[in-house]
Amino acid sequence: MDSQGKAFIYSLLRQGATFRRTLKSLNESQYYSAEQLTSLQNSKLSHLVEHCYKNVPYYTELFDKLQLKPDDIKTKEDLTKLPYLDKLTVRGNYNQLIARNKSKIFCGTAETSGTTGTPSKFLRDFYSVNFENAALWRFREKTGGNGVRKVVLRGDIIVPVEQDHPPFWKEYPLNNELYLSSYHISEENAEIYYQKISEFGAESIYAFPSSVYLLAKYFHEKRKKFELKAVFTSSESISDRQRALIEEVFMCRLYDWYGQVERVSAIGQCEKGTYHIIEDYSITETVDTGCGYELVGTNLNNYIMPLIRFRTGDLVTLGERQCSCGRNFREISKIQGRSLEYILTPDGKRISLFLVSDSIDFDDHVSEAQFIHNKRGEMIINIVAGEKYSEKDRIKIIKTMKDHTSPDMVVTVNEVTALPRGANGKVVNTIARVSDNINC
Ligand SMILES: [Zn+2]
C-alpha cells in the first residue's frame, strides 16, 4: 500500500467506532457540574486501581508494601495515600508497569525527544489513543476550524532536509491534508510556501508554535496575509508575542493545547480562548512548588501502562476566572513550561527560564532568540537580528535580563544568522543545563 493509502486507513482507524463513541460521551461530560465531574473521575479511578492491583506488577508490589487494598483508593483525595511517580521510576520499572492481561498488539509506543534531558518511552493502548484524539477533536470542534482543509507543520521529515528546491510538502487528498516541511521555511522560500498554501485552499494549520511562528514572521515581512479559520498549536510553549503575530498574519484565533507523551494531564484553550485543565480527561493535581504549580496527573484510560500521580515537571500559574464557555474545568492563566528550565542567579535564586525569555520584545530589532543557561549566574542569548538591530538593543537586552534575574548576572548576547533546529524540527528556544534534578 502506498503512503497515501496508509494515511487514509490510519485516519479511518483513528476515527472509527471507538472514537465516535468516546466523542459522544466527551461532548456530554464537558458540560458536567463540578460534582458530576468528580463522580466521573472517582468511578474511573476505582476501576483503574482495581485493574492496577490485579494486573500490573509494579502496583501490586507498591500496594502490598504500603499495606493498601484497591478499596483504599476510591476518590481523588485518596490518591495522596500513594507516592508520586517520576520519569526515572517509570524508566527503571518499564516492564513492571505493563499490564499482564493486555495485549501489546494494538499498542503504540511513544517516545519523548529527550530535549529536556530525560528521554522516556511509554506504551499507549488503542482505547487511550482514540480517547486522546476524541478529547482534542471535541475541544477544537467549537472553534469552527476543525476537520477542514488543513496544513500540518509539525516537524515531520517531508522531503530530505538537504533538498534545496520545491516541493517542500506532501499532499494527502483523501484526508484533505497538506504536510509542509518545518525544515525549509526561510525568507527565500516564504513565497513558495505562501503560493502552495493558497493553491491548496488551506482553512486551518496544525503546527508546532516555532514552525508556524517562523512562517508568520516571513509572511509578515513580505506583507502577506492569509485568512484561516483557526491555527492549532501544541508541544511547545508559545509566548504572547508569537501568538499575536500568528493571529495577525493568519487573521484568525490560535488555539493551544498542552499535553505530554505520558498523557496524564491535558490543558486546552476553549473557543473563548481560556486555558482549561481538561477535567474529564484525567485527574490533574496541582502541586505548589513555590514558583508555580507542578502538574501531577493520573491517566484514567490507558490500561496497558497506567501511570498514577505522575510528575510531569511542568509548571503552570493557576487562574481564578469562571469562563463563559459553560465548562466547569479549572482555569490556567499561564503554562510556564518545564520546571527544570530555570535560571539560577549568582545569589542562588531560581527563576523560570520561560518567563525570563518571555520578557524580550520581538520586532524589527530582534527577530528570534535562544536562551542558554549553562552555569549558575551566567546566561547566553543567541539572537537573530532584525533590520533595525543596533548596539542599543544589545545593551537593552542585557539590562532586561538583569532586571528579570539579578544585577550580578553575567549576560552575553551573540548575533547569529539562524537558530539551530533539533532533530524533531523544533527550535529549542530555552536550554538550561545547570541541573537536571532540582524542581523550579
Ligand atoms: Zn472556557
The number of distinct β-strands equals 20
Mean pLDDT: 87
Small-molecule components bound: zinc ion
Identify the overall geometry: globular
Structural class: alpha/beta
**Uncertain stretches:** 113-119, 436-440
What is the CA–CA distance across the termini?
Answer: 49 Å
Q: What's the alpha carbon Rg, rounded to whole Å?
A: 23 Å
CATH architecture of one domain: 2-Layer Sandwich
Please sum up the structure shown.
The protein contains eleven helices and 20 strands. It has 440 residues and is an alpha/beta fold. The longest helix has 22 residues, at 34-55.
What do these coordinates show?
By secondary structure, this protein is an alpha/beta fold. It has a domain at 342-432: ANL, C-terminal domain (GMP Synthetase, Chain A, domain 3), CATH 3.30.300. 30% of the residues lie in helices and 24% in strands. It contains 11 helices and 20 strands. It has helices at residues 3-14, 17-29, 34-55, 57-65, 87-92, 126-141, 190-200, 209-221, 240-250, 353-357, 391-404, and strands spanning 108-111, 121-124, 150-153, 169-172, 177-180, 204-207, 230-234, 253-258, 267-269, 275-277, 282-288, 293-299, 310-318, 331-338, 342-344, 350-352, 366-375, 378-385, 410-415, 430-432. The strands form 4 sheets. The chain has a 12-stranded mixed beta sheet with strand order 4-5-3-6-7-8-9-10-14-13-12-11, with helices on both faces. Helix 2 crosses helix 6 (126-141). It is globular. The N and C termini lie far apart (49 Å). Mean pLDDT is 87; it is low at 113-119 and 436-440. The structure holds zinc ion. Zinc ion binds at residues 270, 272, 274, 276, 323, 325, 327. Zinc ion is lined by residues 270, 272, 274, 276, 323, 325, 327.
